[in-house]
Design a protein that fits this description.
With about 425 residues, the protein is α/β, with parallel strands linked by helices. The protein has 13 helices and 16 strands. Helix content is about 45%, strand content about 20%.
């Protein structure tokens, strides 16, 4: 119990709008500043078994619901604290557990009774924004929580399936880049790749792009084993060079023939291939990660093509606009792919003064996005500020008076907690 209490005590001060952020220092001296309960517990190296359970509790809350990770731990700590005094009076642990079970049933019933239906639709998203603002008010971003909440709600509504009441969170990507200020955070209707177009002279904007997504390298074939080629005359060298050039020309031609106007490649290209592509006016992006490729494929409706020979027009994805943007005075360039054909992937693009700021904003936005998703799923709300908790406590107290056995003490303790 002591271990769990100490974990809860650590988190207690970061709960709510007046809560304070924690600075965590990891073993190698990295510093994280956060207010997200799950992150704090994740970084704390808890040795004790029961303490670890608290960490798991917070993680599962983060995974299932996304927000309220600090609250669950504090609540669990309070329950254990009350249980301690009951144990000192000599009540058996099983009895306490049973009492808690009964009490939680009563409490959930009471919550369902006081909850209200919460109406919103695709046009009227104001209620959703208000709810997301509640989430963000305890976080570091609360000075521009209104803008942040709007961004989150728009992101969720863009990918939400309102008939099925389902939201696929994989389609919302939160990208961050240091620089600029928090207010520069924006919502991109599409995908942001942290890459630039491989050759500086290629086109920077492509309208109605047809995208070929490749996982094969743009280079001459190499045998896997060690090999040497002996060249003793200039002719042989020339021959080799022509062979390579022909090989590249074929590749580029295949991309061109099936109508692609942009090549996105998982591997690198030779410089030779790069200049070929440039001469053919075929822009390309290289070194795109696997996750991003999959997201791209989902969003643009393209198929990922493993070999050049398999390129066909129907495997190409399409997007309304691909452009490369550079930020401020730095050389940071990113490619934005907008108006994708198949699905509505969106990217929330976070800016902030330093890395910690960006990371913390990403976490807070994650919470708010989850809240919006949960409201799309089931739109009952209870009022905050502790009122719902007090209502439950009162209901449990009243219930406890009707119970003859020892469990009533445990139920009272639940209400106190």
């Amino acid at each position: 119990i002591a271990a769990a209490k100490s974990v809860a005590r650590t988190l207690r001060s970061s709960l709510g709008p007046k809560g304070m952020d924690k600075i965590l220092q990891s073993g190698d001296g990295d510093i994280t500043i956060t207010n997200d309960g799950a992150t704090i517990l994740d970084q704390m190296e808890v040795e004790h078994e029961i303490g670890k359970l608290m960490v798991e509790l917070s993680k599962s809350q983060d995974y299932e619901i996304g927000d309220g990770t600090t609250g669950v731990v504090v609540l669990a700590g309070a329950l254990l604290e009350q249980a301690e005094s009951l144990l000192d009076r000599g009540i058996h642990p099983l009895r306490i557990a049973e009492g808690y079970e009964m009490a939680s049933k009563v409490a959930t019933k009471e919550l369902a009774r006081i909850s209200e239906k919460f109406e919103f639709d695709a046009e009227n998203i104001e209620p959703l924004i208000q709810t997301c603002m509640t989430t963000l008010s305890s976080k570091i971003v609360n000075r521009c929580k209104r803008e942040m909440a709007e961004i989150c709600v728009k992101a969720v509504m863009a990918v939400a399936d309102l008939e099925r009441k389902d939201v696929n969170l994989d389609l919302i990507k939160v990208e961050g880049k240091v620089g600029g200020k928090l207010e520069d955070t924006m919502l991109v209707n599409g995908i942001v790749l942290d890459k630039d177009i491989s050759h500086p002279q290629m086109a920077k904007e492509i309208k109605d792009a047809k995208i070929a997504i490749l996982t094969c390298p743009f280079e001459p074939p190499k045998p896997k084993t060690k090999h040497k080629i002996e060249i003793d005359t200039a002719e042989k060298y020339e021959e080799l060079r022509q062979q390579e050039e022909k090989y590249f020309n074929d590749m580029v031609k295949q991309c061109k023939d099936c109508g692609a106007t942009l090549v996105i490649c998982q591997w690198g290209f030779d410089d030779e291939a790069n200049s070929m592509l440039m001469q053919q006016k075929l822009p390309a992006i290289r070194w795109v990660g696997g996750v991003e490729l999959e997201l791209l494929a989902i969003a643009t409706g393209g198929r990922i093509v493993p070999r050049f020979t398999e390129l066909t027009p129907e495997k190409l994805g399409s997007a309304g606009m691909v452009k490369e943007v550079s930020f401020g005075t730095t050389k940071e360039r990113m490619v934005i792919i907008e108006d994708c054909a198949a699905s509505k992937a969106v990217t929330v693009f976070v800016r902030g003064g330093n890395k910690m700021m960006v990371d913390e904003t990403k976490r807070s936005l994650h919470d708010a996005i989850c809240v919006a998703r949960n409201l799309v799923r089931s739109n009952n709300i209870v009022y905050g500020g502790g009122s719902a908790e007090v209502a439950c406590a009162i209901a449990v107290e009243e219930e406890a008076d009707k119970i003859p056995s020892v469990e009533q003490y445990a139920m009272r303790a639940f209400a106190d907690a």
